[in-house]
Amino acid sequence: MKKLKDIIEQVKNTPETAENFIHLLWQLICYPPKMPVRFQNQQLLDEAEKFSLAVPDDYFTQEELKFNGFKWGNGPRRLLITTGWGSKAADFSELIQALRTIDQLEIIAFDAPGNGSSEGELSNLLLFILSVKAIVHQYGRPDIVIGHSLGAMANVMALNSLQINPELLVSITPLVRLKENFAATMESVNVSQAAQARFFEKFEEVFKTPVDVFKLDEQYKFDYQLNHWLAYDIHDKVAPYPYLDHFLAKHPAIRTQNYPEAGHEKIIKLPALIERLVGEIKSLR
């Protein structure tokens, strides 16, 4: 967290006209905070079969980045967990422990590039998507896919690209609009609208596409037959409910559950959510 705090202070104390100001905004937006694994979660990782895969980082390092994954069980039904921004597989320890009580599961979770134990300092949505695809290519089609926050958006985009309709898709407090999330981050440190506009212009120049493209409204290609369960917190400040409500109005077949006051990050540890998720999986035929 110290590095993120340093970046925030630099943004606050650097004139927006400075030559390096937009560079600092890239750091602010694309640096995921890294927290050590808690002692009580390390045993879970020690019990996993560990693997590493690599994906190309075409936008920051122009190199391949290795990311670390963890696998529990060898059942015939494969379950993939995609974590959120600044998160890691170990953060899902309570959920993974509960999932391990279900027979016939192979559980895969990973630290996306730039997050947790994986290589890279900066990260982005595309690296999350590439990581999901790399795991599918290595281990095969997942039957159950769970994603949190940015990971939920990455799952939708990766599965659409791979033309995979899982038996069950679970989205937990999904990000819906990436541009608005970026803008909220910049506004939190008093970046002007003019400087934000310059950042978004640079984003389009680097990624060859406008940031407006990266939202669930544009990327969701599944039909009404997909078994999709979505958990949210109506008071979520990171993924505001009005954006989600607009998205859900277009896709009424998605089943939802509101967990008010659960919190954007802490919701993945909520016993009621974990119990519901285990029940959803056990109900699959």
Tag the structure with descriptive keywords.
single chain; 285 residues; 41% helix
What features would you describe in this structure?
Strands 1-2-4-3-5-6-7-8 form an eight-stranded mixed β-sheet, with helices on both faces. The protein has helices spanning 2-13, 21-30, 39-46, 93-99, 125-139, 150-162, 178-187, 193-207, 216-219, 241-250, 271-282, and strands at residues 49-57, 63-72, 77-82, 105-110, 144-148, 168-172, 228-232, 255-258. The protein is globular. α1 packs antiparallel against α2 and α5 crosses α6 (150-162). It contains eleven helices and eight strands. The chain has two domains: 1-31 and 178-213, no CATH class; 40-176 and 218-282, 3-Layer(aba) Sandwich (Rossmann fold). By secondary structure, the protein is an alpha/beta fold.
Any idea of the CATH class of the largest domain?
Answer: Alpha Beta
Q: Mean pLDDT, as a whole number?
A: 96
Q: DSSP helix count?
A: 11
Helix/strand order: HHHEEEHEHEHEHHHEHEH
**Low-confidence spans: pLDDT under 50, at least 5 residues?**
none
Question: What is the strand arrangement across the widest sheet?
Answer: 1-2-4-3-5-6-7-8
Task: Give the CATH architecture of the largest domain.
Answer: 3-Layer(aba) Sandwich
Major β-sheet profile: 8 strands, mixed
Brief characterization of the structure:
By secondary structure, the protein is α/β, with parallel strands linked by helices. 41% of the residues lie in helices and 18% in strands.
